[in-house]
Amino acid sequence: MSWELVSGLETHVELSTNTKIFCGCTTKFGGEPNTNCCPICIGLPGTLPKLNRQVVHYAIMAGLATHCTINNVSKMDRKNYVYPDLPKAYQISQYDKPLCEHGYIQLDNGRKIGITRIHIEEDAGKLVHEHGDTFVDYNRGGVPLIEIVSEPDIRSIAEAREYVEKLQMIMKHIGVSDCKMQEGSLRCDVNISVRPEGSNEFGTRTEIKNMNSFTNMEKAMAYEYDRQIDLLESGGKVTQETLRWNPDEGITTPMRGKEDAHDYRYFREPDLVTIYTTDEEIEAIRQELPELPDARIARYESDFGLPEADAQLLVKYRKIAEYFEAAGEGLANKKTVANFILGQIFRTLVTDEEKENGAVAIPPEYLHDLAKLLEDGKIKMNLAKTTLDKMLETGKPCTDFISEQDMGDIDEDTLRTICQSVVDNNPKAVADFKGGKDKAVKALIGQVMKQTRGKADGRKAEAMMVDMMNDME
Amino acid sequence: MVTREEIENIALLSKLFVAEEELDGLTKEMDQMIAFADTINQATDAGEEFDNINGLQNAFREDEVVPSYPQSEILKNRDGGVDGFFYVAKHK
Ligand SMILES: [Zn+2]
Q: From residue A282, how far is each of A64, A277, B32 by CA, in Å?
């Protein structure tokens, strides 16, 4: 029998606010333990939380960017559980009135993965376990999160990955989160079950907690998919339980303690008032949203004639997309600019983070000026390329490397003289050519390019030199 | 009914010292408090839903950083722990 995978994801995304959700402590990552804390975020009695306006704003942006309905009336609730990462013994979250509901993310294959809800909540502190002892750092406690809950619409591991990648790209694009999996600012809980192909019923699901990399998520899902099928095919049953992925052994194991199925005894947070958002406010936020990645990719393809893969690469990093648009401003041929960025410029941005930060050595105006010279036919591609390398090395504009004499075409006579001298001075290459090695011309063209600083027309030079050599005895 | 043992246990968890002779009085007081809360269950009128008693809504804070407390202040009441961390005692 063949089995279908059914999966839904709960994705936690840390918001890029300056301060925590209920107090003015910084959200900066790292730092000595318990230095970004105050009586509110370590849960001392007598303190009162006050909701960060920006958290609501960002969550609504996230909702609008994923086609959600924004609820005009929303409230905070207490989710009670006793574990040392929560100093108050409850987490302030949202239960029955989340800010956003009923959205979706569309995959490249056209399928829509439903988003059940997006709610805001506070992150927990960090526990460090050592030799059976537990130590707690509350710097992360109270950092704002949105939890994005999907419908069980995912049907393969590849779809799960694409869903998270899309989500990540959207959240980064609209600027609500940096979504760095390695720093834990994006993490997923994966719900997974299997059912016979063609069945419409859901099997019993398990939940794998806290996936913090794509590799782990894919491996854990593959393992869990196989494990459940093996269980069912050998006449067993899947138990609904919460699992932890053990990357060292490559297996999932049941979690104990914190996540044992129990009642969270949700109730309204009495210390926080209702959040009302008017339609006008929601509309204003919608207007403020930048162009979303999918729309941007489509525009690059249709308006600029970029291949889909190139468009996707540029849009993957919002700052690169912005750089591209700034550099291409007013130019007819955006493709050249895209090629410069994806080729030479990307070679100088080695890590994902460098691309993320758009840390190009030259401002987009410099690239624009270079591309403009090329577009106007003032310089040739060869010269443009070598110049761009120099610009990237030094951070200087192209005018520092290209002189007036470099621009404009070389007249026929000058080119002929240069070609003649190259042919005269390279008897070995000429002999090779006459001996039937057509490739030998390439070396000669290289020489001409060097002498003309790349502005010669390579084809013209080739034709001239071939004629010259054919005329030779 | 609240029992003497429950009061002893609450005192232990709250790290409060309660003298032997105070126990009976506290048990009785706690029992009365809980009985008072029970009167809510006798309400017959469903009442009116309201957000909060002061009619407040949208009480927000601007996203501006306020200095945090010094680590030494934050850790002042900790029990055990090293290197700036809180320590969680193992279950007995
Ligand atoms: Zn704080």
A: 9, 7, 49
